Task: structure prediction
Amino acid sequence: MPTAAVYNIENEKISEITLSEAVFGASVNESLIYDVVRMQLAARRRGTAATKGRSDVSGGGKKPWRQKGTGRARAGTTRSPLWKGGGTVFGPQPRSYAFRMPKKMRRLALISALSMKFQEAQMIILRDIPMEEIKTKRFQSVLDRLGLKKALFVIDQASPILEKSSRNIKDVKMIRSEGINVYDLLKYDRVVLLEPSVKKIEEALLS
Result:
């Protein structure tokens, strides 16, 4: 069973915690991680691009000239895609790019991402972050002591004080354990888990 050091906000080791081999010591499946990140990014696409077809463009109700006898090609409307100001053929239309992957695959990808962070020593476990009031400056001092610049914090429960103290700091994001995801784990250089959130993550992924 892998073990990890538990630190306080002064960057001092105060204890150790035993981690689940199945969650933090698993083999890394990079292909599965890629597929899940692609799924997450596809779901974020707005898909609002749209073009007008020949039936959507105004005008063109009258036949430009008679069918025969002019020496010119046949034409039924000035809004044909062949004409300037005409409609677009096969242009993009509003759509959803989202697609779903099996729950088991999403879970394995999340386990792979957590194991990769742990194995590459990019994960820190903190006992807690004691703060009595919303203070961005104080939270920044915690980051400085821990040597963190681009970090993802995972907390075990809602904490308005921590969430509001960190939201204006660039390259820092705070999420709850139930919202942990592959994209955020890869986006940030370091992952900081509060000690109580470790068991919550393990229970959710092994249930």
Q: What stands out?
A: The chain has a mean pLDDT of 94. The longest strand covers residues 13-18. The two ends are 19 Å apart (CA to CA). The chain has seven helices and six strands.
